[in-house]
Write a structure and sequence with these properties.
Radius of gyration: 19 Å
CATH superfamily: NADP-dependent oxidoreductase domain
Number of strands: 10
CATH architecture: Alpha-Beta Barrel
Order of helices and strands: EEEHEHEHEHEHEHEHHHHEHH
CATH class: Alpha Beta
Distance between the termini: 35 Å
Length: 302
C-alpha cells in the first residue's frame, strides 16, 4: 500500500490518498478529523489540501489534526497548492501563510495549483528553487498542467539548474482525463510521479446529475464543473459504465473507483469524502481485479 515518490525527497505516499477539499466547506472540523483518523488507520499516507480550499480553512483543519495526533516525523506526506499568478512576492507570502495554517516547519509537497503563463517565468522558477534550498518546501510539483506546459517548465528548470517539478497532479476518471498515454510516457521518462484526483468525476459518474444538477452537490457549489463534464462523450462513458454495472451487479461508483485505482502508471489517487464510508468504498474498489471489465470500461469510445 505504501510506496515512495521516486525523487530525492522520497516522500511516503499511498495508492489511495485523501483530498481535503471538503474540509470546512461540506464538513466541519470534527467530521474532518474523524475522516483523517479513519484514513490514517487504513493506511492512507497522502493528505492533499490547498490554500484555495474554503479560503484556507482546509489547511487549518488539517494542521490542527497534525498537531493533535503526534505522528512520527515523516509518517505522512502533506501537499498543498498555491494560486497564480506566480510572482516572487506572492509565492513567498502564500508559502508563509500555508506553513502557518498547517503548523509545520516545512511543506512536504508544494504544487502550483493551476497553469498560468507566469509558471514559465524564470523569476517564478527561481523562487520555487529557493524555497526548496532554504528548507521551506521539500518537493515541488505542478497541478492541472498539459503535457506541453509541463515539458516547457521542466526544460527551463533543467536549463537553468533549478529544482525540477517531480510530481504532477491532474484530473483522471472514466468521463474526463488529463492524463493521456503520451503524458504518462513523458512522466515515466522524466521521473515525474503522477497523482490523480476526482476518480468519480466530482460525482458525475454516480449518475446523480442525469436529470439536472443535484442540489447541494459539488456541481451545484462549483458550477464550473458543469462545463467540464456535461458533454456528449462524458455522457456516453457514463452510459457504458452504467451498462457494465447493471451486468455485473456492481455499482457505478465501485467500478469507476476500481478503474481509477488500477491505472498502473499512477502513484496515488486522491479521493474526497464527507464520511468514513467514502474511504471504505475506495478500499473495497481497490480489491476489484477483473481485468476484462476494467479494460472494457476504459476502451476508446467508437
Amino acid at each position: 500500500m505504501q510506496t515512495t515518490f521516486m525523487t530525492s525527497a522520497k516522500l511516503p505516499v499511498s495508492r489511495i490518498g485523501l483530498g481535503c477539499v471538503t474540509f470546512g466547506r461540506e464538513i466541519d472540523a470534527a467530521a474532518s478529523h474523524a475522516l483523517l483518523d479513519h484514513a490514517y488507520e487504513r493506511g492512507v499516507r497522502m493528505f492533499d489540501t490547498a490554500q484555495a480550499y474554503s479560503d484556507g480553512a482546509s489547511e487549518r483543519i488539517l494542521g490542527a489534526w497534525l498537531a493533535s495526533r503526534g505522528l512520527p516525523s515523516g509518517a505522512v506526506t502533506v501537499s498543498t497548492k498555491i494560486l497564480p499568478p506566480y510572482e516572487p512576492a506572492r509565492i513567498a507570502l502564500a508559502v508563509d501563510e500555508s506553513i502557518l495554517r498547517l503548523g509545520v516547519a516545512q511543506i512536504d509537497l508544494l504544487y502550483l495549483h493551476s497553469w498560468d503563463a507566469s509558471a514559465h517565468s524564470l523569476e517564478a522558477l527561481v523562487s520555487f528553487d529557493a524555497l526548496v534550498k532554504a528548507g521551506f518546501v521539500q518537493t515541488i510539483g505542478a497541478s492541472n498542467f498539459s503535457l506541453p506546459q509541463l515539458q516547457k517548465a521542466l526544460e527551463l528548470q533543467q536549463r537553468h539548474g533549478l529544482t525540477r517539478f517531480s510530481v504532477v497532479q491532474n484530473n483522471n476518471n472514466l468521463a474526463v482525463s488529463d492524463v493521456s498515454p503520451a503524458f504518462c510516457a513523458f512522466c515515466a521518462e522524466e521521473n515525474v510521479a503522477i497523482v490523480t484526483y476526482s476518480p468519480l468525476g466530482a460525482g458525475f459518474l454516480t449518475g446523480k446529475h442525469k436529470a439536472g444538477v443535484a442540489p447541494g452537490s459539488r456541481f451545484d457549489r462549483i458550477p464550473g464543473h458543469q462545463n467540464i463534464y456535461f458533454k456528449d462523450e462524458s455522457y456516453h462513458r457514463l452510459a457504458r459504465l452504467e451498462f457494465v454495472a447493471s451486468r455485473t451487479g456492481l455499482s457505478p461508483s465501485h467500478l469507476a473507483l476500481a478503474w481509477a485505482l488500477h491505472q498502473s502508471q499512477i502513484a496515488s489517487v486522491l479521493i474526497g469524502g464527507r464520511t468514513t464510508a467514502h474511504i471504505d468504498q475506495a478500499f473495497a474498489a481497490q480489491i476489484f481485479d477483473d481485468e476484462a471489465v476494467l479494460s472494457e470500461l476504459g476502451a476508446p469510445m467508437l
